[in-house]
Design brief:
Shape: elongated
Radius of gyration: 16 Å
Strand order of the largest sheet: 2-1-3
Distance between the termini: 17 Å
Mean pLDDT: 92
Strand content: 5-15%
Low-confidence stretches: none
Order of helices and strands: EHEEHH
Largest sheet: 3 strands, antiparallel
Helix content: 25-40%
Structural class: alpha+beta
Bound molecules: zinc ion
Number of strands: 3
């Protein structure tokens, strides 16, 4: 693993997001929807389930890097891009987010997996 600065590309314009110019963000209304779907699913399957039954479950909500100037919607959970510029920063935020019950309704695992492989979002 290298200790180079992590690159984040804007989900809207595809250009890199520099420190102070944007956020890593996830849409909270969508996260709450996925969260509710899982709560309902678990409640209706108290004794477990077949893998095939998961086919209709919603996909995790994607985190997106985005420029402040490109953002069009509100109601999002945002992390300043400067705070996730390094692997250590990303690890620190991962620890923080693991305290949120809704984290598993997002694709955070993909985000850190991509950055660990040196690919960017
Ligand atoms: Zn942009």
């Amino acid at each position: 693993m290298t200790l180079e600065a992590l690159t984040w590309s804007c989900a809207v314009c595809s250009k890199p997001v520099s420190d102070g110019a944007g956020f890593l963000t996830v849409d909270m209304p969508s996260v709450q929807e996925v969260d509710r779907a899982w709560d309902d699913f678990k409640r209706s399957h108290p004794r477990g389930y077949e893998v095939a039954e998961l086919a209709d479950m919603p996909e995790p909500v994607p985190w997106r890097a985005i420029h402040e100037a490109c953002e069009v919607e509100g109601s999002t959970y945002s992390i300043e891009i400067a705070k996730v510029r390094t692997h250590a920063g990303l690890l620190k935020w991962t620890a923080h987010l693991m305290g949120k019950r809704w984290l598993s309704s997002t694709n955070w695992a993909d985000v850190i997996d991509h950055q660990a492989r040196g690919q960017h979002l």
